[in-house]
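Below is how a single chain appears once it has passed through the pipeline. First comes the sequence as given, then the structure the pipeline wrote out for it. We keep one example in the README because the format questions we get most often are answered faster by looking than by reading.
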Amino acid sequence: MGVKVLVGTRKGLFFLTSDDARRDWHVEGPALTGWEIMHAAQDPRDGALYACSSSFVYSGTVHKSTDGGETWERSEQIGLPEESGLTLEKLWHIRPGHPDRPNELWLGGTPAALFRSQDSGETWEPVEGILEHPTRERWQPGAGGLCCHTIQLDPSDPDRLVVAISAAGAFRTDDGGETWHPKNKDVAADFYPDDPYPEVGQCVHKLLVHPQKPERYWQQNHCGVYRSDDRGDNWERLDKNGLPSDFGFPIMIHPGDPDTALVIPEEGAVNRVTVGGKLGVYRTRDAGATWALASDGLPEEAWSVILREASASDSLDPAGFYFGTQGGKVFVSPTEGDDWLCAASDLPPVLSVEVAQSG
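Resulting structure:
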């Protein structure tokens, strides 16, 4: 069946395909030409494709394809209630629901908006528990705005989800979205020197739930890399043991090994490029106790920028890792980070990378 990767760019959605060896790649597209694709995903339950898209004519919307990307339909009814005083700006992330709820989808956007569809994307309703959260007045926009950019499901419980908002932090629901609890204990917010460990206000850059060990969360934050072993109730900081920087955006995890994760550090908040002009991927195989460079095959010199949505992993053995750059390149490691190859180049700036099919 091979591997299919969805690559969202500033000018459309590209498809990268290969066999299970993942050494030779074919690039197709773009679909949705002219649209900025913040994130795209395939629903594993029915194969439908969804894309968070925007253009200078339209605000954020969702495109759906049921024929592999040949044709698309656009959602027309996504917005925030007038009484909220808020206007939807951009959609960042779409997540198919739990297998036990085949028509459910989740959607995150700006300003700190979370939506749910229960009819496969025909209609969308804002999640009031996020929209009216009692701590909302303490949330502040990051460089990308006040964006809900991460939605992660707990495979063991369809009522449990965790979302991440910049700059508000991580929030978990255990009751299907009715109530949401901040999950930011011991996560730093150094930009608040008077209160560097607040209840909310942290700038999460990306958060992932491990599919086989769902109590384990991984997080790349504005202020460090973290791991939680109790679904976000407590966090341990991991970046003082081999990483050249505590700042970065993407994080990748091994779907079969909860102790393996990869990050791509950047200089810092002021200079958001790879550290020292080197495209350095760092890997831990011991749950963050140590990190080591895993960049064989990557350019020796590269002032690269990799955005929060622009990385992914597949479920093959050995696992494959993927990331895309603002310079329009997509890199693949079919060997769990032991070596890398360039699967595509000269694309528009890459905004998102997601594996649609593997094996």
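The radius of gyration is 19 Å.

See the next section for the split statistics.
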